[in-house]
Design brief:
By secondary structure, this protein is of the alpha/beta class. Helices cover 52% and strands 8% of the residues. Helix 9 crosses helix 11. The chain is flat and about 70 Å long. The structure holds adenosine-5'-diphosphate. Keywords: ATP-binding, Chloroplast, Coiled coil, Hydrolase, Membrane, Nucleotide-binding, Plastid, Protease, Transit peptide, Transmembrane, Transmembrane helix.
Length: 475
């Protein structure tokens, strides 16, 4: 086996390579069933030949998905550590650059490095940055470049011979819904494992892992204190729980105490919750007129989300504490298998128009800002997807990867149809927002006053809102 040391320096900077990660499954707590599934993979990786003789092969790819901080990277490292194989890591965003060809060549580099040390593990964090649906919404640019990177990953994974030494590719994402389906096909990332937020028992187990190197007055007191923290930390990730213990350790040292006690833990919890809840120190820096626009944007998105609920992503809350190009509205993790119908696609286009429509209504056409431009971009891309890639519209029954695939007369047809869809979506959206104008105003007021609003309150306002009848808009 060649020394790994040379790799880190001489070859690509974007790859981080470790001979052994030193991480084991003992470092990951909670969600025991995940470990059980991965243990099987470790056994195959370790015992390459024995299993191959029996005709049992390691999956080529494992996809870990779930919210940030839930231990996906930790699990990937634990697989490498347990199997005793080198670990090559990169981030999906590293592949996407302005320069053509960079993505594909970086992917090649990564796989070549890992192959020369096989059996080994490749870990690609935020794989959605490179592996999102082709031809889908492309906020942030780099579409063609990204597509080449994605194709290269597919080529590399298809190219592995099962009979040669194994390279296991582990991907991590918190956006399973936007991944290109090609990545999830058999022989690619065909093992998909969800890493969710820990349960109460899971949180207790995680706290115990991170309390291993901390001092408590006694084992018994430690158990009681950690149980208490586990109780108070619903919705916390493993990373946040780890922070609480670290913070408590720092507070203890600052007070010159020998042991972590209840006061320090509760103080640390409060701090963690504080950063967790406000998160945006810059909220006061948002100018008043922009706050008003953000509030209207979120209110319009909320009303449309009530009128045309997304069957798979219920909204949870929104705020005006940060300035983002897309609405701040938060959604629950996708649940179950997605089964979108044409009407769901249409509704998504109408929903996407909301920030644009409300700006024009409230501020006038000459006073619209980037908020409208971003909404228009999003809605147009959704419309284009429906027209080109689903075969469900008057455009025709074929699939087109993107606009550049089209001969001129089809391109003209696309323009006309997209225009038609956008016109319909804007009109429909405007009709809904006028009908529920009083709900829009109420939600806007609450946002301006409190900075945030939860789904429950939004639904309540929506349902009580007196409706103002509007002329019917049909597609
Ligand atoms: P992700 O890759 O999902 O964003 P990470 O693996 O980077 O999350 O998690 C960050 C840190 O949080 C880990 O290094 C670990 O210390 C801690 N952590 C997260 N989840 C767990 C867990 N289930 N058990 C123990 N520690 C955890």
């Amino acid at each position: 086996r060649r020394a790994l040391g040379s790799l880190g320096k001489s070859r690509a900077k974007f790859i981080s390579a470790e001979e052994t990660t030193g991480v084991t499954f003992n470092d990951f707590a909670g969600q025991e069933y995940i470990k059980r599934e991965l243990q099987e993979i470790v056994r195959i990786l370790k015992n390459d030949e024995e299993f191959q003789n029996k005709g049992i092969y390691c999956p080529k790819g494992v996809l870990l998905h779930g919210p940030p901080g839930t231990g996906k990277t930790l699990l990937a490292k634990a697989i490498a550590g347990e199997a005793g194989v080198p670990f090559f890591a990169a981030n999906g965003t590293d592949f996407v650059e302005m320069f053509v060809g960079v993505a594909a060549s970086r992917v090649k580099d990564l796989f070549a490095s890992a192959r020369s040390f096989a059996p080994s593990i490749i870990f690609i964090d935020e794989i959605d940055a490179i592996g999102s649906k082709r031809g889908g919404p492309d906020i942030g640019g780099g579409g063609a470049e990204r597509e080449q990177g994605l194709l290269q990953i597919l080529t590399e994974m298809d190219g592995f011979k099962v009979s040669t030494s194994q390279v296991l590719v582990i991907g991590a994402t918190n956006r399973l819904d936007i991944l290109d389906p090609a990545l999830l096909r058999k022989g690619r990332f065909d093992k998909i494992i969800r890493v969710g937020l820990p349960s109460k028992d899971g949180r207790f187990a995680i706290l115990k892992v991170h309390a291993r190197n901390k001092f408590f007055r006694s084992e018994a007191e430690k158990e009681v204190l950690l149980q208490e923290i586990a109780e108070f930390t619903e919705d916390f990730t493993g990373a946040e729980l780890q922070n609480i213990l670290n913070e408590a350790g720092i507070l203890t040292a600052r007070k010159d105490l020998d042991y972590i006690g209840q006061d320090e833990l509760l103080e640390a919890l409060k701090r963690q919750k504080g950063t967790f809840e406000t998160g945006q120190e810059d909220s006061t820096d948002i100018p008043e007129d922009l706050k008003l626009r953000l509030a209207y944007r979120e209110a319009s998105v909320a009303v449309l989300a009530c009128y045309f609920p997304d069957p798979y992503r219920p909204f949870t809350e929104t705020d005006i504490k940060s300035i983002r190009s897309q609405p701040n509205m938060c959604y629950a993790e996708i649940s179950g298998r997605v089964f979108l119908k044409k009407l769901d696609y249409l509704n998504a286009i109408v929903r996407a128009c909301a920030p644009r429509v409300i700006e024009e209504e409230m501020f006038g056409v000459d006073n619209m800002c980037w908020i409208s431009a971003k909404a228009t971009l999003e809605a147009s891309r959704l419309a284009e997807f429906l027209i080109l890639q689903t075969g469900m519209t008057a455009f025709g029954k074929a699939y087109y990867r993107n606009q550049s695939d089209l001969v001129p007369n089809l391109a003209a047809k696309l323009e006309a149809l997209r225009e038609e869809y956008m016109r319909f979506a804007v009109e429909k959206c405007a009709s809904v927002l006028r009908e529920y104008h009083s709900a829009v105003e109420t939600i806007t007021d609450i946002l301006l006053e409190k900075g945030e609003i939860k789904a429950e309150e939004i639904w309540d306002i929506f349902q009580r809102s007196p409706q103002i009848p509007q002329p019917v808009v049909n597609p």
